[in-house]
Amino acid sequence: MNLFKCMCACALAAGTGAYAKPIAFAHGTTVMAEYGAGTMNEAQVFYAPKYYLSFGGGMLSLDSDVDGRRRDITYLRANYLLKRWNMEAAQANVFVWGGAGQAWVSESDSHAFAWNTGAQLDYETRRVYASLKTDLHESPAFSHRIDTLQLGIAPYKHDFNTLATWFVVQGRHYTGGIHDGAEWALLLRLFKRGAWVEAGSTTDGKLQAMAMFNF
Amino acid sequence: MKNSLSFALALMLISATAQADTIEMKVYGLVCGFCAQGIEKTLRKNPATADVVVSLEDKLVAIETRAGHDISDADLTRALTESGYDVKAIAHTQRSMAEIRASLKSGNH
Predict the structure, then answer these.
(1) Is the CB of B37 less than 8 angstroms away from the CB of A25?
(2) In this structure, which CATH number among 3.30.70.1050, 3.40.50.300, 3.20.20.70, 3.30.70.100 belongs to the domain B20-106?
(3) Whole-angstrom Cα distance, residue B43 to residue B37?
(4) Do B38 and A28 touch (CB under 8 A)?
(5) CB of A134 within 8 A of CB of A145?
(6) Residue B53: closest CA among chain A residues belongs to which residue?
(7) How many domains would you assign to chain A?
(8) Domain region containing A79
(9) Do residues A97 and A22 lie in contact, with contact meaning Cβ atoms separated by under 8 Å?
(10) pLDDT tens sequence across B38-94
């Protein structure tokens, strides 16, 4: 958990942000930290040697608001851009990823081998954004899948050196007893060049925030 | 006198051939600042690059090469493709980067 806080602090201190894609651009480094309504906290660092491939690691903490169970998962992961469609004024992507690491399990106060797989589909223009992400974390002691849907709309078209503003509706669903039902949030997302920050609130008033920096 | 004139003409020719070149590319898939950031970073690594302009609005990537240097169309296409984007057209133009920036700013493309 201390490492997570440290990574968040580093990301914010760097003054650059992170994008919600696991690969930003070739030879680029992505640092991301997310605070997910008290239910999940995640920090990631990835380096992309190619535009379609990145390697790195992350830390994920899951805190059940159902029964108080907790997992602290650290992992190494590879991300792969399976398919990209470049259109005149739009882009769509399919990403997949996989990795492995270790998890601390609160019920048994023990560590276990854990693995992670996932995929993301996204489509964006300069006015509309949609993504669907599924992220599965498993170990012999647990199985949690986090499905996240984001739909965004921009009030104006940004360009390279101008600030991008997005209003995003996020729906998230956890399996494995982390949260009952879907968790909805309304977010304000701002980014310019390599810096990205977003913040908002879930329907029950909890903070949802993320910062990402690409350099 | 004749020698001086020939020398002046030769200098003008050398100067013209050593002038910076502007290459304008139409690129598909440019939808966010991160796209542009990656492209700019890649192109600026090339020692022949003097300046780069990226416009999401115009799907434009323009590059000015240093005087006496050149980057082939094939190398530029490869650089953009290896950045994850599709080059649809390449044109060598006489527009300066200042003119391109002014044109983009005014919206008169």
Answers:
(1) yes
(2) 3.30.70.100
(3) 10
(4) yes
(5) yes
(6) A160
(7) 1
(8) 2-214
(9) yes
(10) 899 899 999 999 999 999 999 999 999 998 898 999 999 999 999 999 999 999 998
The residues with which A93 forms a beta bridge, in sequence order, are A84, A122
Strands (E), chain A: 28-36, 40-50, 53-63, 70-86, 91-105, 110-124, 128-139, 142-153, 164-174, 182-192, 195-202, 207-214
Q: Six-digit token pair at B95? A: 């527009």
d(CA B34, CA A69): 38
Residues 6+ apart with CB under 8 A from B55: A159, A160, B62, B104
CATH code of the domain containing A69: 2.40.160
The domain segmentation of chain B, as residue ranges, is: 20-106
Q: What are phi and psi of A3, to 5 degrees?
A: -65, -40
Say which residue, B39 or B20, is predicted with more confidence. B39
| Two structure tokens written together for A90 | 């739009």
Provide the terminal-to-terminal Cα distance of chain A, rounded to the nearest Å.
Answer: 25
Question: Any chain B CB within 8 A of the CB of A57?
Answer: no
Res B16 pLDDT > 90: no
Please give the Cα distance from A133 to A147 (Å, whole number). Answer: 6
Residue A4 pLDDT: 41
CB A174 within 8 A of CB A39: yes
* Residues on chain B touching A52 (C-beta within 8 angstroms): 84
User: What is the tens place of the pLDDT at every residue in A42-88?
Assistant: 999 999 999 999 999 999 999 999 999 999 999 999 999 999 999 99
Answer whether B32 sits within 8 Å of A164, measured CB to CB. Answer: yes
Out of A26, A158, A160, closest to residue B82 by CB:
A26
